[in-house]
Design brief:
Largest interface: A-B, 75 and 68 residues
Helix content of chain A: 25-40%
Number of domains of chain A: 2
CATH architecture of the largest domain in chain A: 3-Layer(aba) Sandwich
Oligomer: heterodimer
Number of helices of chain B: 7
Number of helices of chain A: 11
Strand content of chain B: 15-25%
Helix content of chain B: 25-40%
Distance between the termini of chain A: 35 Å
CATH topology of the largest domain in chain A: Peroxisomal Thiolase, Chain A, domain 1
CATH superfamily of the largest domain in chain A: Thiolase/Chalcone synthase
Shape of chain B: globular
Strand content of chain A: 15-25%
Chain lengths: ~375, ~240
C-alpha cells in the first residue's frame, strides 16, 4: 500500500435507505423535510416526569420483538429496502449505544437478549440477514460514529482492500440516553432550534440508515445507480473537553480542511453544508465559528435536519449523508426547522425555508462527545 | 505501505508498563491490576482518580505506549490518530450509570457517570492529556484477532489522515451475562505506529499491510496483538544484545 495522492478518490454511493419517524424510505423523509415538518413530540415510551424535557422524535410503531432489542426492528425495516449487493461486501455498523434498551430490561430484571447490549452486538444479525460473506466491524465514535464509518468504508475501497462496503447505522431513543442528556441539562424543553439565537438545547431522535459504497469502476461496470461520490473525508479531535466542543471550532475546522485536501477541492467548490446543528448553545456556536473561518462571508446554504427528526446520535451522519445526496440531486437545501432568529454568523446562510443552489459538492459534518469531529465531501451523482 | 512500530504500552493481568521494560503483556484471563496515577503518569493528573475503570485502563496503556515512543511530552497539539478495539467497551460503566437511573425515576441519574457511557470517551481523555488531534474511534470486530485497529491505523496513514497513530485494544474482560467467557480477556495493549520515526532509537521494527489486509512485522505474519507485542519485544532484546 502506498501513500495516496489527493483528489484521486472514486467511491460511489449506489444505494441509500433510511428509517425515521417519517417512514421507511428516504423519499418520505425528504418530502417531510422540505415541508418543514417535525416528528418531535411528547414521548410515550417511558415515564418522563423526572426529566428536564418530555419530548423526542420517535418512531410510533417501533416495537421489541421477543427478547431482542428494538434495534432489530430498525434493522428489518432498513435492510428490507436495500437492493442486491456483492456477497463479499464488507459490513460496517455504526452506533453509539447499540441495543442499550436490553440493558435497561436486564437491570430491571425483565427478560432480554444480553448480547444485543455489546458495541458490536448487532453485527451478526445484519450480516446474517444480508447473507454476506465478507468481514464485519462496528465503529463507535459518539455522534460522529456513522460519519467516520462512511469515511473508513470509503478509505478501505480507495486503498484497494475491498470493492464494496455497506455502512449500517442506528440508534434508539431510550431512557438510558434520555436520562443522561437530561442530567447534563442538555435537552431543550421544546423542540430544538438549530442555529437560532434563542436555542436552548437538543431534542433526541431515533432512526437508521444504510449506504452502499462501491468502487466507481466496478459500480459502472455493474450499471449501479450513481447517487453520488464520496470525494474526501477528515476527522479530528479538538482535545479540549469530553462533553463540550472547543469554542473556536479548531477540531471541526481541521476535519473539514483535511476532507477538502483529500478531495483535492477548494472551499469555494462547496455549494451547501449539511451541518450537525444540534440546537445546543455551544455546539452551534462552535460550528458557525469553524464554518465561517472556512467559508468566510460566502452565502452558501447551511442547514440542519435535527429540528425535524431530532438528534439521532450514531445514526445522524448516515441519515444526513443520505439527505445530503438528495440535496445535491435536487439542488435544493431543506429548511432548518425551528430556526427563526439567526445566531450571529448564521445570517443569510441558515434558513427556515428551502433554498435552491447550484453546485456539485456538499459538505456534511458531525461532532460528538470525546472531542471528535468528522467531515465528508459528497459529489452529485450522475443518475437522478 | 511500510510503517514503523516505535512504542508499546500495556496493562494486562500479567504486566503493566512499556515495551522496552521487557514486559510480557499476555492477554489471558485474570485479575487486572488496580492502576494508580503514579503507575502511568509522572506528573499530577487529578482527574485520573475520577475516571471509570475502562477509561483508566485504556488511558494508562496509551500513556505507557507514548512514553515508550518518546512522545509523551508535548507543547503543540499533534495530529496523531487513535484506533482502539473492544468487545465490551464501557459496559461496566453503563451498568453502574443505569443503576443510578432506576431509583427515583431518573431524578438521581449521574451526569458525571453518563459522560463515560461512550466507548470512545477515554480516547478524548487521551487527546486532552497528550494533545492528540487526529481521528479517534473505537471498533468492535467479528473475529478475535483484534488486528483491525492496526489495519485502520495503517490505512489512515496511507490515506493521508495522519502520519502517526496509536492502534490497540482495551477491554475489561468477560462480563456475565453479556458475553461468553472465551470471548475476550481483560487488558489494554497499544502500539505507536509512525510513517517516519522521529527518533530511530525507538524503532522496534517495521510493520507492513498487504493488499489483502494481512499484517507483517519485520516480514513475519502477525495473527493477533499479543503475538505482535511478543515479536516487537524479541526484536528489541536482539537489538540490545
Amino acid at each position: 500500500m502506498e501513500i495516496r495522492k489527493t483528489g484521486t478518490i472514486n467511491v460511489w454511493v449506489t444505494d441509500a435507505v433510511t428509517v425515521t419517524p417519517f417512514g421507511d424510505n428516504l423519499n418520505d423523509l425528504w418530502l417531510a423535510l422540505l415541508a418543514g415538518k417535525s416528528a418531535i413530540r411528547p414521548l410515550q415510551r417511558f415515564a418522563v416526569e423526572g426529566y428536564h424535557a418530555g419530548i423526542a422524535s420517535w418512531i410510533e410503531d417501533l416495537v421489541k420483538i421477543d427478547n431482542r432489542s428494538m434495534c432489530h426492528f430498525l434493522i428489518e425495516h432498513l435492510l428490507g429496502q436495500l437492493g442486491p449487493m456483492p456477497a463479499n461486501t464488507l459490513l460496517i455498523t455504526a452506533t453509539t449505544k447499540s441495543g442499550i434498551d436490553n440493558l435497561e430490561r436486564i437491570r430491571r430484571c425483565a427478560p432480554a437478549a444480553p448480547a444485543d447490549v455489546l458495541p458490536g452486538g448487532l453485527l451478526e444479525e445484519v450480516h446474517r440477514q444480508l447473507g454476506l460473506t465478507g468481514e464485519c466491524i462496528n465503529i463507535s465514535a459518539a455522534c460522529a460514529s456513522s460519519t467516520i464509518a462512511l469515511a473508513q468504508g470509503a478509505e478501505l475501497i480507495a486503498s484497494g482492500y475491498t470493492n464494496s462496503v455497506l455502512v449500517c447505522c442506528m440508534d434508539l431513543v431510550t431512557e438510558f440516553v434520555f436520562s443522561g442528556f437530561s442530567s447534563l441539562l442538555a435537552l431543550a424543553a421544546g423542540p430544538c432550534r438549530p442555529f437560532d439565537r434563542d436555542r436552548n438545547g437538543l431534542s433526541l431522535g431515533e432512526g437508521a440508515a444504510a449506504l452502499l459504497l462501491m468502487n466507481g469502476e466496478l459500480a459502472r461496470q455493474e450499471s449501479r445507480s450513481h447517487l453520488g461520490t464520496i470525494l474526501g473525508w477528515g476527522a479530528a479531535n479538538d482535545a479540549t473537553h469530553i462533553t463540550a466542543p472547543a469554542r473556536d471550532g479548531c477540531g471541526l475546522r481541521q476535519a473539514v480542511l483535511k476532507a477538502l485536501d483529500i478531495a483535492g477541492r477548494h472551499a469555494d467548490e462547496i455549494a451547501a453544508v449539511c451541518a450537525h446543528g444540534t440546537g445546543s448553545v455551544y455546539n452551534d456556536l462552535m460550528e458557525l465559528n469553524a464554518l465561517n473561518q472556512i467559508f468566510g462571508n460566502r452565502r452558501l446554504p447551511i442547514f440542519s435536519i435535527k429540528g425535524s427528526i431530532g438528534h439521532t446520535l450514531g445514526a445522524a451522519g448516515g441519515i444526513e449523508a443520505a439527505v445530503g445526496l438528495r440535496t445535491l440531486s435536487e439542488q435544493m437545501a431543506p429548511p432548518t426547522v425551528g430556526f427563526s432568529n439567526p445566531e450571529i454568523g448564521a445570517e443569510n446562510k441558515v434558513s427556515f425555508q428551502p433554498s435552491t443552489f447550484s453546485g456539485d459538492c456538499l459538505l456534511t459534518t458531525n461532532s460528538g462527545f470525546g472531542g471528535i469531529n468528522a467531515a465528508l465531501i459528497l459529489e452529485k451523482g450522475s443518475l437522478q | 505501505m511500510k510503517a514503523f512500530i516505535t512504542g508499546i504500552g500495556g496493562v494486562t493481568a500479567t504486566d503493566m508498563g512499556c515495551g522496552r521494560d521487557n514486559k510480557r503483556f499476555e492477554l489471558k484471563a485474570g485479575k487486572l491490576p488496580n492502576i494508580s496515577r503514579r503507575d502511568a503518569f509522572d506528573t499530577p493528573y487529578p482527574k485520573f482518580r475520577r475516571l471509570d475503570k475502562y477509561s483508566r485502563l485504556g488511558l494508562s496503556a496509551i500513556a505507557f505506549a507514548l512514553k515508550d515512543a518518546g512522545l509523551d511530552r508535548w507543547t503543540d497539539p499533534r495530529p496523531i490518530g487513535i484506533i482502539a478495539s473492544t468487545v465490551h467497551g464501557c459496559l461496566d460503566t453503563d451498568i453502574n450509570y443505569y443503576d443510578t437511573v432506576i431509583p427515583e425515576d431518573g431524578c438521581l441519574a449521574s451526569p458525571n457517570m453518563f459522560a463515560y457511557t461512550l466507548s470512545n470517551i477515554y480516547l478524548g481523555e487521551a487527546a486532552i492529556r497528550f494533545g492528540l488531534t487526529g481521528a479517534g474511534y473505537v471498533i468492535s470486530e467479528s473475529t478475535q484477532s483484534e488486528l483491525w485497529c492496526l489495519r485502520m491505523a495503517l490505512t489512515g496513514i496511507a490515506g493521508g489522515q495522519f502520519d502517526k497513530a496509536l492502534g490497540g485494544r482495551c477491554d475489561l474482560g468477560h462480563c456475565p451475562p453479556y458475553s461468553e467467557p472465551e470471548r475476550t480477556a481483560g487488558g489494554a495493549l497499544f502500539f505507536v505506529i509512525e510513517q517516519k520515526p522521529s527518533n530511530a532509537c525507538t524503532v522496534y521494527g517495521n510493520v507492513v499491510i498487504d493488499s489483502r489486509g494481512e499484517l507483517f512485522f519485520n516480514g513475519t505474519g502477525v495473527k493477533d496483538l499479543e503475538t505482535l507485542a511478543r515479536h516487537c519485544i524479541a526484536a528489541h532484546s536482539k537489538q540490545e544484545s
